[in-house]
Every structure is written in structure tokens, then in C-alpha cells.
């Protein structure tokens, strides 16, 4: 089964920027961070040059850990098509891990803005600082697990895809493939045993791969790729699957019964009210550093409305007092973060006066906000541009 899987992966894998072998840019396999500074010229291709040799990479192990780590962090919760442009931009802005470690947090957030789940971006920079402080990239699963924000999946991915180590990984794709191949029922097994079984199978597979002399990366990424392109959640294409003959669910015609659905956490509905002060003439809005808020730490957003600002009676007085122009408009938008459904009401207030220019606030251009923004504030900006210009 593993030979079929890794052969299929080698033939069918998608061309993705983080799958490029070394030699296509100036990075070399860094046994330590110094290597990069010493050799600015591309290594001659296989990642087995003077620096790479220290790592003694087995077959296929010539992907840079920085790129693999970055891509895997981005790919958690986010689709490949969305990640690609962010991945390129990130590497342009922070070509090496030292650049990332020493960057301003706001610049990192800005580069991440729109990808969501912003703790990943903060962790990424924490992780970069940790790695740089160690003076070299972690060389083992245990060392990778010490990097902030890196869990068993990410550690397994970097060690197998970049270092060629025979360590297991399980992500959502792998889980789906395993559940179908072996008809694993989370209801029968219970959540914990189901998860343990997934990891047991991944370990079994990767140690077999080692015995067979297959590449660790091809097998681990093979599972993921199969899950992402063939054994998909909806409409799996069993006709094109290299493992069809090994698949219990296919044989028993129970493919759609797996994976069994997770019991869903209850939906929580939240309402947010924000104020958009709009200076139409200058095409600017007032934004606030939202570090202190529950969501989207490290991003900028429209200021939260005080209850009084939304209550109509008091609103007249507030407007009068602050000399704000009279026209107003309400924009509505909805956003989902994990199990929270957030309804947002934005009160747009037209003004020509720059009343607030204190710390933590800034007038920014609608066309080039130049602040790290999350999806909700981007959406408001888009709505404002559509509605009022
Ligand atoms: N999803 C997350 N990481 C992946 C990878 N390396 N290949 C395919 N799908 C993935
Ligand atoms: Fe998935 Fe179908 Fe392949 Fe089984 S045969 S692993 S269900 S794609």
C-alpha cells in the first residue's frame, strides 16, 4: 500500500511553492543559521552540499525547514489556493527566519492579515525568535516540539518533509483517509481512542516506509495529498485512487459514512457594534489598534461603539457635542470564527474633522490602509467604497 501511495504522490502531486526543492533560491539546508550567510549562491541542487551534508538528509529531504514550517502553519485551517499568494508575499518580506524574528510585530500581522486565526502569526514570530536564539534549526521532533506554536502535527510535518525523518503525522486529510481505509468509527471507539488509533496507524505506516526505503516525506505528504485531492470530504474520486483495493470503506460501499461527523460545539452568537468615522473628502477612516479586544489581537479595526453612541436619543447629543456631520448609515456584516458567529453593525458617520488622533488611533486611507486588518474591517472598507464613492 505504501509503495502505491508514494509512487502515486511522486507522479500526481500538485506543484506548490513550498514543495520546491532547494536550489531554486538562495537558501540552503541550514544545519545552522550561519550557513545561509556564508553561501549566498544556490547550492547545486540536492540539498546535500557542504551544509546539507551535516543533516545527512535521506531520500527526498531537500526542502528548507523555514519554508515547510511557514507553509504548514499557514495551511492549518486555510486552503491551499488562499495560502499560495500569502506564502510568496511572506517570503518576500521575510526571506529568512532571522528577518522574521527581528521584524516588527505589526509588519508580521500585516503580512498575515486576511488569513485568519491570527494566533498562528504571533506564534510564528515567537517560534522564529526561539529558533534564532538557538542558533540553528531544530534537528529532531523533540526539538521542534519546543518551538512555540508547534504541535505534533507541525513537528511531524517539518521533520518528515524537510529533514526526511521517519516520524508520523495526522491532520484532517490523513484522518479522513485512515477513517475510510480502515472504517474507523469515532462513535464506537470514542474520541480519544479514535485519535490514538489515527496516530498509531500513522506511526505504523512511517516505520514500514523506513523498512521499505521509501521517502518519509512522500509517504506522509502522500496521505495528505490523497485526502486533499482524491479522498476528499465531498465526492471522493475512488475511481482515481491508488489505494482502492486496500480500502475497506470502498469494498463495503460505505465511503460516505466516513469520517463520522464530530459532535459540533454549540454555536455562539455574538453582536458587535463599531463606528466608522469617514472623512469622505480625504478618503480616510478612523481605525483603532485592537490589541485589547477579544478577537483579532494585533490587528487594527474600527473603534467599538459605546452603547450610548448607538442609542438614538443620546446620539443626537453626542453628535452635536462632537460636531459630527448629520448623515449616518448602518452597514451590516457577518463573520465566523471557530464556533462563533459574529454579526457586526457598523455605524458610518461622516466627518471632516479629525477629532481623534491619539495613541492607538489612526486615520488611514481607504485605498491603502497600511495596517494589519482582519476580514471584518476589510469588508467594511469594501462596503464603504461601494456604498459611498
Ligand atoms: N495540507 C497541509 N499540509 C499539506 C501538504 N504538505 N500537502 C498537502 N496538503 C496539505
Ligand atoms: Fe478514499 Fe475512495 Fe481511496 Fe478509499 S478508495 S481511500 S474512500 S478515495
What does this structure look like?
- It is a single chain.
- Helix 4 (65-75) packs across helix 5.
- The chain has 18 helices and 6 strands.
- Helix content is 44%, strand content 12%.
- It has helices at 2-12, 34-38, 50-53, 65-75, 80-93, 97-102, 105-112, 119-134, 141-145, 152-161, 172-181, 186-189, 191-212, 216-229, 248-251, 307-310, 312-322, 375-388; strands spanning 268-279, 284-289, 300-301, 328-337, 340-350, 361-365.
- The protein is of the alpha+beta class and 389 residues long.
- The termini are far apart.
- It is globular.
- Strands 1, 2, 3, 4, 5 and 6 form a 6-stranded mixed beta sheet that branches.
- Residues 72, 75, 171, 173, 221, 224-225, 228 line the site of adenine (ADE).
- The site of adenine has 8 residues, from helix 4 and helix 14.
- Beta-strand proportion: 5-15%
Q: Which structural category do the helix and sheet elements fall into?
A: alpha+beta
* Main sheet properties: 6 strands, mixed
Distance between the amino and carboxyl termini: 59 Å
Which spans of ≥5 residues are poorly predicted at pLDDT below 50? Answer: 23-61
Radius of gyration: 25 Å
* Strand elements, count: 6
Bound molecules: adenine, iron/sulfur cluster
Amino acid at each position: 500500500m505504501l509503495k502505491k501511495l508514494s509512487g502515486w504522490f511522486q507522479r500526481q502531486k500538485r506543484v506548490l511553492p513550498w514543495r520546491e526543492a532547494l536550489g531554486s533560491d538562495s537558501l540552503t539546508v541550514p544545519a545552522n543559521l550561519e550557513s545561509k550567510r556564508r553561501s549566498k549562491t544556490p547550492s547545486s541542487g540536492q540539498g546535500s552540499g557542504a551544509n546539507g551534508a551535516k543533516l545527512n538528509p535521506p531520500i527526498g529531504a531537500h526542502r528548507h525547514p523555514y519554508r515547510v514550517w511557514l507553509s504548514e502553519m499557514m495551511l492549518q485551517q486555510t486552503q491551499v489556493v488562499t495560502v499560495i499568494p500569502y506564502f510568496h508575499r511572506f517570503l518576500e518580506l521575510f526571506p529568512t527566519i532571522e528577518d522574521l524574528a527581528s521584524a516588527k510585530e505589526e509588519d508580521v500581522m500585516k503580512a498575515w492579515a486576511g488569513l485568519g486565526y491570527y494566533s498562528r502569526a504571533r506564534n510564528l514570530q515567537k517560534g522564529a525568535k526561539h529558533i534564532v536564539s538557538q542558533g540553528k534549526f531544530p534537528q529532531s521532533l523533540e526539538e521542534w516540539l519546543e518551538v512555540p506554536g508547534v504541535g505534533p502535527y507541525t513537528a511531524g510535518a517539518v521533520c518528515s518533509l524537510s529533514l526526511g525523518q521517519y516520524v508520523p503525522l495526522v491532520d484532517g486529510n490523513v484522518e479522513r483517509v485512515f477513517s475510510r481505509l480502515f472504517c474507523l468509527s469515532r462513535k464506537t471507539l470514542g474520541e480519544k481512542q479514535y485519535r490514538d488509533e489515527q496516530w498509531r496507524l500513522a506511526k505504523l505506516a512511517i516505520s514500514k516506509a523506513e523498512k521499505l526505503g521509501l521517502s518519509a516525506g512522500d509517504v506522509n505528504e502522500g496521505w495528505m495529498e490523497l485526502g486533499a485531492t482524491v479522498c476528499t470530504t465531498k465526492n471522493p474520486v475512488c475511481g482515481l485512487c491508488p489505494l482502492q483495493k486496500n480500502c475497506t470503506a470502498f469494498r463495503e460501499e460505505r465511503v460516505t459514512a466516513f469520517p463520522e461527523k464530530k459532535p459540533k460545539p454549540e454555536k455562539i452568537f455574538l453582536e458587535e457594534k463599531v463606528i466608522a468615522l469617514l472623512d469622505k473628502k480625504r478618503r480616510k477612516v478612523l481605525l483603532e489598534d485592537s490589541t485589547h479586544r477579544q478577537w483579532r489581537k494585533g490587528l487594527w479595526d474600527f473603534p467599538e461603539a459605546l452603547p450610548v453612541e448607538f442609542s438614538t436619543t443620546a446620539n443626537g447629543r453626542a453628535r452635536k457635542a462632537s460636531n459630527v456631520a448629520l448623515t449616518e448609515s448602518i452597514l451590516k456584516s457577518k463573520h465566523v470564527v471557530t464556533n462563533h458567529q459574529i454579526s457586526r453593525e457598523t455605524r458610518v458617520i461622516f466627518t471632516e474633522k479629525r477629532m481623534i488622533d491619539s495613541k492607538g488611533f489612526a486615520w488611514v486611507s481607504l485605498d491603502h490602509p497600511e495596517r494589519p486588518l482582519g476580514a471584518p474591517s476589510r469588508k467594511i472598507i469594501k462596503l464603504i467604497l461601494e456604498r459611498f464613492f
